[in-house]
Amino acid sequence: MNKSRRTFLLKSALAGASAAALPARAQEHHHPPEPSPKKGAGPQKREAAGAPGHAAHLPLVEMPDLEKLPWTLEDGVKVFHISADVVRREFLPGRVVDCWGFNGSMPGPLIEINQGDRVRFVVENNLPEVFSMHWHGIELPFEMDGVPGLVQDPILPGGRFVYEFTVHQHGTFFYHSHMPMQEMMGMIGMMVIHPGEIYEPRADRDFGLIFQEWAILPNNTVPNTLSMEFNWLTINGKAGPDTTPMLVKQGERVRIRMVNLGMDHHPIHLHGNTFYVTGTEGGRVPQAAWTPQNTVLVGVAQGRDIEFEAKYAGDWMLHCHLPHHMMNQMASMVGPLVHGGAGIQAGKTMEAGMGMIREGHALSENNGPSLGRGLGVGSTYQETLTQLPVTPGSASLVQQSPHARHHVPPPGGKLVPGYPQDMFMVMDEMISKPETHGLRASWTAGMMGMMTLVRVLTPEKYDEIQEIKRNWKEQKPATHIHK
Ligand SMILES: [Cu+2]
Prior knowledge:
Layout: H1 3-14, H2 21-28, H3 41-48, E1 72-74, E2 77-92, E3 95-102, E4 111-114, E5 118-125, E6 133-136, E7 160-166, E8 171-177, H4 180-184, E9 188-194, E10 205-214, E11 232-235, E12 246-249, E13 253-260, E14 266-270, E15 275-280, E16 283-284, E17 292-293, E18 295-298, E19 303-309, E20 314-320, H5 336-339, H6 350-353, H7 355-358, H8 376-380, H9 395-400, E21 451-457, H10 459-471, E22 479-481
Bound molecules: copper (II) ion.
Copper (II) ion (CU) is lined by residues 264, 266, 320, 322, 325, 450.
């Protein structure tokens, strides 16, 4: 970006994003969403091209690592088919979880509609138990509210129920099973209703993120829905660093819609930028009520839309700031086994790997404080902590990091009680994808749990990654329906 344009954008941002700035941004705008490879691409595209009352350059919503729900138009009604499915989702390479979701996806695909739409949802139940669907925050006829028992008979396994209503609201909503344990198995999806009149100032990018938390015991693939000890935290069904970064061009106005369905509230923090909360789960916030923030609490069952001008190039982290939500596997490095010299025999046989649990109990003095330690993803790579893969550029970092070499005393020669505290694992190559192109070597070591990136790119870098994306062949789908 040349200097004069940057100055112009800065000025316009200071002026409260005046209307004069809009044409300049519009010129630079590219529709972010790629057409879905599924059959729904047609209708989505047609709508993007200009449904009545909706401007053609309205940015559609992108949900990293998720797809959109296709629809067909029947007598003026947008008809969607939703199936409640048992789904297998890979949170991180090698960490496959058997969860529940919709249309073979966990979380479910994005429903994107317009204010005033008449919508019909044909919902089928492929689960082994009863279920019904709730439309969170939608003002609709009572009969369509989806509470089993109170409003309707639950949908039996193999059965179906048809929901139909007209949406007069606009904003960020979601759909979810109204059975609590099913919610904790993953049964949620986002529903965005675009307004009849486009929000000002106009956004060039519109992203959607769903926050979830999981308790998965060692050697299990099924979430423990009763537990309050969460060891996996996901954004759109992926744990950091495998969350796909959001790509924007420097100078664009960015909106990020966030919803939370779990047991904890998440203080979501964005690095290096100041944003405004422009929407809640109830709709758009009047501009006079916007306050500058860099952290926003997204409570359970709440939605928060944030917007900011992407003025500063960089790879800016967006993450929950609860320390326990910035980890994978809740792996603690503290304890006698860690300091014993040999460490936990990670990646060995079950007996060797679980020796800590066979002797005494999981929290006993002998075994250290962490149940999850040495198991699963953390353990698979724990051995490599002593011999971290050294990539060009990361070598000095790795050598300087005491965390990377926990079998040797820290500088000074003394073992410090309770040291080391943190994991430090590099897995750049393992989760490499076009959206991570050009990130600093060893970037993955700082990304765990409920974390992702907003990459504010120069136009040249942005185009370079788009080119890589076009040539990229998916190695394997992230989700599939469990047979
Ligand atoms: Cu959190």
